[in-house]
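can u do me a favor
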């Protein structure tokens, strides 16, 4: 057990709870040191406080840039209490020990997120705060460091129950939180400066996240899991408000993110139904209810227990349709009162609102963990370059609209991806196969099954357009689509055998366009 806390330094940007914390420490007999606005707030609340400049005998200078960068402060934080040489140095230089440090940092991240100028961002880079935090955290054998207001109560409870002291176990815990905070702070600054200096791939790339949710398990029950957020303002699952329903699982979050990113691609009213991060039905419509119904009938079997993403405010009519079957999650920019009343009858249904739609053209990075490293790439935020008709037959305007729709959906399907579409809706999806030919076959099968489910004898693939996320390496995949009934094809092109595939399309009498851009999704 350490000695009771006799001296504490409190200097915070976020002043939530600081008066109560300072008053508690003072009531326990601790001398309170502080700076600037924190000192003023404590004094006005009647908490006895000593300004740091008075304690160090050195005034704040350079607009407050230099106030805690003093031997009297860092010596008090770093001195090992049972080290005779350290004690002697403290005595010789009149350095008093500081037993508790409570600091949170200048709001650099919030300043940056608010779109502040370069100079304002620089001024919100804290120097003294991180230096003190790291010093106190290093000396956690003797010093308690607190960087989060949410930890005040834990520290107060421990001091109250341990004769004015904290335990080594708690000080280790708090030291970890302190280093994690300064690491995240430095990561935000270094990332910003990399952007400011046009470094797409800086020598060292830092990532940081704040724990938002721990989960019962990950993809499978034997895997531990948690959800961390990085402060990116992009609307989506990380920033969404959950209106009702059970806690979101690892798979819920993954699938919901995939669904919302897909539906954000469309300017028209749209709905996407996702299962295991792949769309089983996507459609646009005159109304949201029309779009949902068209997406649902594409694969009524897979839609059960799926994720529904919408790009318009969820209304009562659409809510009535969605709640006819079991759905895991609904995500939309907003939900109106009529819909809320209907959804409230499904207590376990998770309903999320984001307030806005993400910009599908915005930049950003995606990250994938590998053994021993990270794969980092730019977000797939483009889709069409120049559509080039490569066959003798050109697509009609209606077919071209369906082609663009199909190719947009295909961008969000696990490769190898094939999607049949007609009249602004998917009618058959083939995803994640090792062979593109097999994806064609599976998508055609789904189109047949969808038609049968609606009491129709003719496959919905007949008269459809088909999109492929990457080129057809041989004509066999295209011929499978033709056999299924497709009348137009959209694909990137770029195969060594493009001419063979074009010749096959011409012989079949179908239209085909090249996009010049593939969309692998692994």
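np, heres the sequence
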């Amino acid at each position: 057990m350490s000695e009771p806390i006799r001296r504490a330094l409190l200097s915070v940007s976020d002043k939530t709870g600081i008066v109560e914390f300072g008053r508690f420490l003072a009531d326990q007999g601790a001398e309170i040191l502080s700076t600037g606005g924190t000192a003023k707030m404590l004094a006005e609340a009647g908490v006895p406080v000593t300004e740091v400049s008075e304690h160090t005998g050195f005034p704040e200078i350079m607009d407050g840039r230099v106030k805690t960068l003093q031997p009297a402060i860092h010596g008090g934080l770093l001195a090992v209490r049972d080290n005779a040489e350290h004690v002697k140095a403290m005595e010789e230089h009149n350095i008093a020990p500081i037993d508790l440090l409570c600091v949170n940092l200048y709001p650099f991240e919030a300043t940056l997120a608010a779109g502040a100028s370069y100079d304002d961002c620089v001024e919100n880079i804290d120097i003294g705060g991180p230096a003190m935090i790291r010093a106190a955290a290093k000396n956690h054998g003797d010093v308690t460091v607190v960087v989060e207001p949410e930890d005040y109560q834990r520290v107060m409870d421990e001091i109250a129950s341990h004769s004015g002291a904290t335990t080594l176990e708690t000080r280790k815990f708090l030291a970890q939180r302190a280093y994690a905070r300064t690491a995240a702070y430095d990561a935000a600054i270094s990332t910003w400066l990399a952007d400011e200096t046009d470094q797409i791939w800086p020598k060292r790339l830092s990532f940081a996240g704040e724990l938002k949710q721990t989960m019962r398990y990950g993809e499978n029950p034997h895997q531990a899991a948690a959800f961390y957020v990085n402060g990116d303002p992009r609307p989506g699952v990380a920033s969404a408000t959950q209106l009702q329903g059970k806690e979101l699982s690892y798979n819920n979050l993954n699938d919901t993110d995939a669904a919302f990113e897909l539906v954000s691609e469309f300017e028209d009213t749209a709905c996407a139904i996702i299962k295991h991060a792949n769309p089983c039905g996507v459609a646009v419509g005159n109304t949201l209810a029309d779009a949902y119904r068209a997406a649902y009938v594409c694969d009524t079997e897979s839609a059960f227990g799926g994720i529904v993403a919408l790009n318009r405010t969820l209304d009562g009519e659409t809510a009535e349709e969605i709640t006819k079957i079991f759905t895991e999650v609904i995500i939309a920019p907003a939900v109106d009162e009529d819909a809320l009343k209907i959804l409230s009858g499904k207590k376990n249904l998770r309903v999320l609102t984001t307030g806005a739609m993400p910009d599908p053209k915005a930049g950003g990075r995606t990250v994938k963990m590998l053994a021993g490293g990270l794969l980092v790439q730019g977000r797939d935020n483009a889709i069409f370059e120049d559509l080039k008709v490569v066959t003798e037959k050109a697509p009609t305007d209606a077919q071209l609209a369906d082609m663009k729709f199909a190719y947009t959906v295909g961008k969000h399907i696990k490769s190898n991806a094939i999607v049949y579409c007609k009249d602004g809706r998917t009618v058959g999806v083939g995803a994640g196969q090792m062979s593109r030919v097999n994806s064609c076959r599976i998508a055609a099968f789904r189109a047949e099954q969808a038609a049968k489910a609606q009491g129709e004898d003719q496959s919905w693939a007949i008269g459809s357009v088909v999109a492929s996320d990457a080129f057809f390496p041989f004509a066999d995949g295209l011929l499978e689509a033709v056999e299924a009934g497709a009348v137009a094809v959209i694909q990137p092109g770029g195969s060594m055998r493009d001419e063979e595939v074009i010749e096959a399309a011409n012989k079949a009498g179908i239209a085909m366009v090249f996009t010049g851009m593939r969309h692998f999704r692994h």
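The CA atoms of residues 141 and 168 lie 6 Å apart. hope that helps!!
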